Every structure is written in structure tokens, then in C-alpha cells.
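Record format v2
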Amino acid sequence: MKKIYVILATALVLLAGCKNSDVTVTSESIFPDYSDIVIPCNIAPLNFMVKGADKVTVHVKGVADYSFSDRGETVTFPIKKWKSMLDAEQGNSLNVSVFINGEDTPLKEFEWHVSAHSIDKYLSYRLIEPAYEVWSRIEIEERNMENFSTRSIGDNRIADRSCMNCHTTNKQGTSFMHLRGEHGGTILNRDGVITKLNTKTEFTGNTVYGDISTDGRYGVFTTADIKFAIHSHYTQRMEVYDSSSDLVVVDFDNLTVTDAPSVKGVEYQETFPCFTPDGKTIIFCRAKHLPQPDSIRNMKYDIVAVQFDPETGKIGDKVYTVFSTEGKDLSFSHLKCSPDGRYLMATAASYGTFPVWHQESELWLIDLKTGTVDVMKDTNARYADTYHSWSSNSRWVVFASKRDDKVYGRPYIAYIDENGNASKAFLLPQKDPALYATTLKSFNLPELSSMKEDYNARDVSVLYRKIQPQQVTYKP
Amino acid sequence: MKKFLKYSGIVYLILFFAVIFLFYFLIVPYQMGFKEQTGIFISMPSYLALYLQKPAILSEFSGDFLTQLFSIRVCSALIPLLLLLLVWLGISLLIKRVIGKDRAFFCALLPVAVETAYLVYLNYPISSTISLLVAVWAAYLLIGVKDKKIRIILFAISIPILYVLIGGHTLMFVISIAVLDYKSWRFNLPVAVAGVVAMLLMGHFYNLTLLDSILYPVITGYVLPPNVMFLLLPAAFLIAFLAAIFRLYGWIMAVMSAAGLGLATHFAFNEKVEYVAEISTHAYNDRWYDVKKLSLDNKTNNRLGVFYRNLSFAREGKLTQELFKYPQMASDGLFVDLQPGVTYLEVFSYLDLLLEVGDVSQATDCALLCQTVMPKSYSSRGIKNLAEIAMIVGDKDVAYKYLDMLENTLLHKKWAVEMRKSILTDSLPQEYEVYRSRMPYADYFYQQNNWTESLSAVADANPYNVAAIDYLLCACLLNKNYKTFVSYYDRYYLNRLDRIIQVPEIYMQALLLQADDDESLNMLMQKYGIPEVMVDYYFAFVDAQAEMQGDIRNLAAFSGTYWYYMVLARFNAQ
């Protein structure tokens, strides 16, 4: 028995030997940066770490005073105490003071404003290494935003290691997710009824990026021939582009797919469509077709719109320009309408259609009522900010940002007030914030939803392996 | 006689385990050492928490902790040896407790022989041996419980607990109890069957495939024994137990286990894999002298051997000088294809080349791929490569991300701390400065796995990147793509590089092949500045070729020239 103790002690000493002891602690040592932010009243505790600290104490002053303390680098707020604090302080600003190692002077002081607007309870995202050529392990996880629990809703190890992408919801009970591979298809969940569809027809291609109408009847998708190219200059590394792309609308009630001359053809490339909440307009990105990748720097995607008749499922003939990029160093992608229909959020890059690899990418907010554009200076940061998703109440957005280390996308949350003012964004809290330091995965395609997804990774595995997809038919 | 038997038995056991140690230490040291490069152990709670997401918590945690020591050669032999000794001891005591002392120690050797062979495979983790160890000792403890009812209840309870702690080798525990406690078979058998079903269900809960459920922490789909070979271990357990039960002569078991060890290691040993692991490890550790030496001693004409031979010459600036002095595989000996299904051995190798030719974009992609193609998506070597590339391109934030991780490891910490200091003091290692000087400073697009496009893009973006240009030109020459060679030569060398560096002889030899007559010869001499001595040498070759009378040996004096390579290629094709 003594020997076991010796071995354990040796192991602990060896492990302890790995800790950095000569770190200078400054206010910059706090990670994540949760200073001066607006937080939802139902968010999980904003645990943070002070690198190099031995003890962290946090005093929070609002209507009441709260104190939290932890040994080590990380302060972990007890979830019950945190919840009751947020409940009591809804609509208030909290003064937060961070002390370390029992010192009297705070290391940093900042504010938290607790918004009375809650954020959607669930967030799904794809965990993937930022190298897209060989799909070894892809997992789609669903996170409860009110605590730290996660569950897997897609795991390609039990689906022949096939690619999984675009888990998208309309926040009203309908969602889809594409599975690639031999037995792939589009997993559609309509109010708990889960089916697998083959949306490719003789006349239309494989569906990729898409959106679902509020009533869940229609899905609008890009069909694209997606290609990769590498930049010789290391700053951007990779370029993803569509050598051709069109739009299609899938009627989930009748299992038909349709298109229209206004959204297909070789003259233009159409992509990233979304429905307006009333379902009567499809907004999408469009650029004149140019040979790529050689002319990719001239591919500037405008924001355009076309009418849609939800009764007949017909796409309008005339395309209207919402925001033209002509003469500007701009190209739009990832369009998402706020559920209240007031705003359209887009990703703006200098060219092309895959901004996740563009360090200059940032989020823009367009007021559909007034036409004003906000470049969201307080929300955007260095490196790529992309793949946003609105919460059901239109007050929060989650997006993937590479601001921390340039390589790995992480979910950031920002508040949008009634007047369209966007706040400083903050990192999705984790039980142990060091998780971001040790993971080699990007949190890709974050998607908010007020409803829990009805399936899990094992259901997806069964759907992949055992269920034949329902064929969608082309309706001219 | 009894004494003699006792001592000869001890000597036999010592020899048996000495053979295992020597096998790991002398025959497959690089395959064993490679296990460290294909994983990592970061002593940070957020990383350690990952162990809770899968079964085999105990064995994976301890296994990964021990695996990081495998970069030290003696540890990569000694640690498995000690674990195997403990496995053997556990099985021996288990048999002894149930059946009796006789032959127990010999019978227990057979499963050890099989496990010894498994460990040779690159992706068979040491954590699996720890699982086996725990399974055997758990069986030993359980079988010692005298009360039958309590024993059966404990048997049922311990299966799910063990599965969480050690994963798939819980099956060995189940087999051991079911067979050795055969007197209670009426109870044990249903429990054993239910236990196996429970294991599969738990594997399902952990999102594992059926096969992975009973093999975890082994993850199928990587460099492992063929799936059917995994039946050998339960079979060896059964044989060992049955041999003990039926009191088979000790010497028969001794012979069987020796034969088992010999056969298992014979089948597990793959000279090619060991060769590649060795050469790749030398490259990783910057021992380029050893890389070159080994690549020159490439008896099996291994593709990665040829690849590294060319690369080690390129690093010395002698690629063009040495290219045609050795057997080649056209451009396959210069590059690696990154197609789905690519192994990490190839990805690591290609990364070394991409850095050499200044293609930092593809190098970054390669280093990220290294994580993607690893069984557990973490590779210490890949992370180190990512940190190096970030330092070369001057991305401090990115470099810190990886250095933070490495600073929390046992054996990479020192390197990471030194690198952090070098970033802070702006004094990067000299080698990184060389790589940096080759980096593209303009932006062009190219397709992955298309070396013509990528090298010309890199060369266009930095026309003084001689390493990339030489690789491009040499690839054209090796593929006998003569016209493309001339066009690339004119683009990169003519009136540019030829003014600042000496044009390699093989290029001049190739350029001379354009001459049809005296006029064109004079034109070529003028255009490319080809010296007369080279022209005379060419005429000598032409004469020799005319007189070779179908015997290539008559051209031996010209071996190493491009002309000889061309003729030899034609000759071999006929």
C-alpha cells in the first residue's frame, strides 16, 4: 500500500511541476474578457480565470452585494447563487471587482448589465478541426445556455465518419441537418417527426446552406458546387468558393423542390438565402458569375430579395437589390433575419462567399425598416466574426469569432437593443474557461433555439444507416 | 530434479521477458516511441475532463500519462515490459488461486505474448494494456471472495463499473470469472452474457460503434492489428485457463508461449513501418544526419525513404546535385498526396517538405490535419509543428495558443518555455529565419495536392525561393516532363536566379536536349550560358549512346546525369 502512495505522490509532483510559477498577473491575465457587457438574465455563470493567480475573489455590487471566492486561477460561481443573483438583478447594472491572492486593491473593476431579455435556452454548434479536407471526427453538440450541460446530437464516428453540417432551426420546432456520405440525406425534424430526405433531383443539385420558413413548411437552400483553393500567402490560408450556385425551395409538406429563373442560371451565383419572418420574401446573396478562383477577388455578393408566395410555393420573377456592393470592397454572406422582422444581419468580407477564412470578416446589421446599416463596431473584433444566429426574441445573437487566437472559432454572444444598438460581445461561458485553451476544435455554425432538439447522435446514426431517404420530386 | 526444474523455470521466465524488452528496445523502438507523437497528456483540468467523456477513464488517464514518457527510448521498452510483467503476475496468481500452483506461471505467458504483439502497432495504446492489467487483477480479487453469493453479486456489479474504468478489456474480466469460477456456471453464465450486453449498450451510450465498444480504448480505423487478430487475446486466455484446468505439462505451455511470442511478434513486426517511424522521428527531432543515413540505406525502396532522401539533400542545397545518383520514383518520391485516408506518417512527412519549400499555408493545413487524422484528435508533434509554423509566420497569438498547451506537458514544457522566451526577445531559432525567408510575400491561389500549381504559386510569390523552384524543376525532370521543365526554367532561372546562383548541372544537361542541330545548339549555349565543357560532355554521351549496343552498362560513366536517367527510363520501359 505504501508503494501505491509513493507512486501517486510522485505522479502528483510531476503534474504539479507542470504549473507555471513565474507568471506576472495583470488585468490582462483575466480570461475570458467579461468586462462591461450586457448579459442575459438566464445565462450560465460567467466563470473566468486569472492566469497565474492563487486565489480569486469577486465582489459584485448591485441592489444587493454578492461575494464569490475560489482557490486557484478560476472563479467558479455556484450555479444556484448565480441564478438567484441574476433573478434579483434583472435590468440592473452590477459593479464587479476582481481581487486576487487576498489583496485589498482590485485587479480589475467592470460592469455587468443584466438584461431582462433572456437568451434562447439551447445552442447547437459543430465541433471540428479547422482543416476541412479529411473528415475524421465531427460532432454536433447541443448546449444548455442556462447551465453547462451538453449532449451530442450528431457524431460522425457512428455514421461512417461522414461529414455533417448546417444544423439549422426555425426556432419553432422545425430543424434540418445535412448528412453526407453513402447513406446521407437531410435530416428533417418537424415538430418531433424526424425524416431523412434526398433533396437532390434530376434538375437540382445537393442542398447546402439554408433556412426554414417560420411555419416550418418551406426550406430555402443553396445548391452549389463547392470548391477549395489555398492562398500562397499565409494570412488567409484557404479560400472556399462556389464554381456555380443556385437557390431552390423545398416544400416539406408535399416533398417537392422548386426553383425559378430569378434564382438560377449561369449569369449570377446565388447563395445564403433566408426567409423573412412573414415568409413572403426570400433574401439572399448574389454575385455575377466569374471564373474562379482566378477572379475570386472580384466576386462581390450583393444582398438581394425575391418575392415568395407561401400559399403556392412559387418564387417571384423579379429580384430587388437590398444592398449593392458595386464599387465597394465588400461581399456579403450568411444572411439571417431577426425573428421580429426588423433587422437583417449579414457577414461582410472584402470578397467571396466563405468569410470564415477571411480575417477581415465582420457582422453588419441592416435595419429593414429604415435601411440604415450598422457596422457593429462594439461587437466586431480583430479576426473573423461569422456565422451568427438570432435568439427567438431578436435581442441576442450568437456568432463564431476567431478574435482570440485567429484559428479557432468560438461562440460569442452580443445584445441587440430595440433600436438596433449592438453591445460588446462576450465568450460563451464554460464551467472551466480553460477548455478554450486546450481544445483544438472550432465551434462552428452556432445556432440558437428555444427548443431542445428532438433527436440525439444515436438517432442520427440509425437514420444514417438504416432509414432510406424520402425522395423529393422536382416541381417546375 | 525438482530444484533444477524450479530454477530452469525462473531462467525461462527471465528470458521470456528479456526477449520482450529487447524486442521493444532494439527491434521496434521507433514504433513504440511514435506512440508519444500521436497523443498528448496536458495536465490542465479542462483537458483531463475529456477523459470523463469516454469509457476507460482510469486506463486512458494513466496510459496517456505514461505514453508521454515514450519519447525516451528506454521508457518505451521498460514501461510496457513492467505492465506486461504485472499482467503476467495477475494471470498467474489468478490461475494459482483457482487451480493450483502447478504450471500457473507458464500458462499465464500465452496472453502476455499476444498483448506484446498488439503493443507493437502504432495505434494500440498502452492504456489498453493497463485495462488488461486491471481486468486481470480485478478478476483475481473477485475470485478470492469465498462467499459464492457475494461473489456472484460482485461479479454482476463490477462489470459496468469496470467498463467505465477500463473499457473493452472488461471482457477479459468476464471471461476469466466465467471460466475459472466454472463451478458456479449456472449463475455466472447469465451474468457474463448480461455483462457483455451491458458493455455493448454502454458503448452505444458513449457513441461507440459495436466493435469499438468491446475494444475501447483501442479505436478502430487506425494502425492496428487486423480486427480478427483481436480474437487472439480471449483465445489465449481460454487456452491458458484450460491448460491449467486440464493440467497440461508445464513445458508444453512454455513451448507454446515461446512459440506464441515468436509468431505474434513476427506477424506484428513490420519492417516498413519501423523504417518509416524511425526516419520520421529523426526528422521530427531535427537529426537530419540520421535521416540522410537511413534514407540512403533504403533497401526496400520505400517511398517515404526516397522522399526523405531527396528532402535531406534539399536541406543541404544538394537536391539537384544528387537527384539522379539514386533510384527515384518519378515525382512520387518528392511529394505526398493528401487524400482522404492519408495516414499521419505521410502527413508528418509532407509537413517537413512544405516548410522546406516555404509553403506555410499548406504546412499549416497539414499540421491541422495531423490532429484530424489522430485517433483522439490530439498529437504532441502536430501541436509542436503548429507552434513552429506560427512562430515562422510571426503569428504570436496563434503560437501562444499551442505553447500554452505544451507548457502544461511533462516533456515538451522546456521547449515551449524556451520558444516563448524567443518570441518575447525576438530571437527565433536560425532555422525558422531560413524558413521565413522562403515565405511567399504575394498571394496566389492553388489547389491542394497539385504540386505544379502550389510550387509555382509559392515561387511566383517569392522568386528567390530556390528550394521551391528546384523542387518544381526536379519534379518535371523526374516525370520526363521536358517541355514544362523548360518553361519553368525560363520563368524562374533565366536572367534571374542564374545571375545570382550557379545553375545546377542537371538543368544544363536537360536544356541541351533541345538542340537539334549546330545552329540551335549555339543558340542554346548563348541563351542559357551553357559552358563548352558541358557541350563536350554531352557529345561524349551521344557517342557512347550510339555505341552502347543495347547494353546500358556501357553508359555507366554517365550515371548521375539527366541524359542517363532518360535513357535508363526508356531502357526500363522497353
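The radius of gyration of chain B is 30 Å.
Strands of chain B lie at 445-446.
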